[in-house]
Design brief:
By secondary structure, the protein is mainly alpha-helical. Helix content is 75%, strand content 3%. The longest helix is centred in the C-terminal third of the chain and has 41 residues.
């Protein structure tokens, strides 16, 4: 049992380093880092998790002099690691948000904007709908457990007491952004193809029957067809979200192992 009243100077500094990574991770991570959660709750959660993990974290053999001399460099390193890992957990919701934006633009509902509490910005109604489904799927497959287990394992894969930091994985994170864009296009492909076919049909109809005002008639038809395809493809969308969570988790642990 750890005696908190008799911590040495080195242990206090190590506790502060662990807390820095934890705060950076929680503030930048998905769900836990939502703007709707107050800052005091995030800090309290970080302190509680740090107190639980501190006796279990393997920091290696370091002395007070080593830590005190490099405390600034170690603190910056912990912040970078925490923010990087937290950003990777948000990729799942970034892809869902991009999918909702593309569907909204295709259907013609991009003008209707609402506040998205998950991302902390305004978004379309379809984006809100997709974000709500993504949040339910995320909790249904215990994604919040994945968030906590990821930060716990990061202390074993990326030791606290080491100044070494491999910057190679940061380039892989940029490439993963390209993969996320491709996944978003795949997820909204049924709606985009359906709207393309509808627009082609309305264009042919407008040429065949000039008396029909295509600009006025096409909007309700496009919305009706687009929303029908959205609801028909919901089972496929949920399956894609499950696969996307797995891809995000695998990429997160790959980056941690390479740091």
């Amino acid at each position: 049992m750890l005696n908190w009243s008799s911590l040495t100077e080195a242990q206090i500094l190590l506790f502060a380093l662990i807390l820095l990574r934890m705060i950076a991770y929680i503030v930048s991570s998905a769900v836990l880092g939502s703007p709707t959660i107050s800052t005091s709750v995030k800090v309290l959660l970080s302190i509680i998790l740090t107190m639980i993990l501190f006796p279990l974290v393997q920091v290696g053999k370091v002395d007070y002099l080593t830590i005190s001399n490099d405390i600034v460099s170690l603190a910056v390193r912990e912040l970078i690691v925490g923010l990087s890992l937290g950003f990777l957990t948000r990729i799942f919701f970034f892809v869902v948000t991009m999918t909702g934006d593309l569907v909204s633009m295709s259907v013609g509902l991009s003008a209707s904007q609402l506040f998205n509490p998950m991302m902390g910005s305004n978004g379309s109604t379809i984006e809100q709908f997709y974000s709500t489904i993504a949040t339910l799927v995320f909790f249904a497959i215990n994604g919040h457990h994945m968030l906590i287990s990821a930060i716990v394992q990061s202390y074993d894969l990326v030791p606290v007491s080491s100044l070494a930091l491999n910057v190679g994985p940061f380039a892989e994170m940029a490439v993963f952004g390209q993969t996320a864009m491709i996944l978003a296009i795949k997820m909204c492909a049924p709606v985009m193809v359906a709207i393309l076919v509808v627009n082609l049909g309305m264009g042919i109809l407008g040429r065949a029957v000039p008396q029909i005002n295509v600009l006025v008639t096409s909007m309700p038809v496009t919305i009706m067809i687009g929303m029908s395809v959205v609801f028909l493809c919901l089972p496929l969308l949920v399956m894609e979200m499950n696969g996307l969570v797995e891809i995000t988790a695998n990429k997160l642990f790959e980056v941690m192992k390479a740091l």
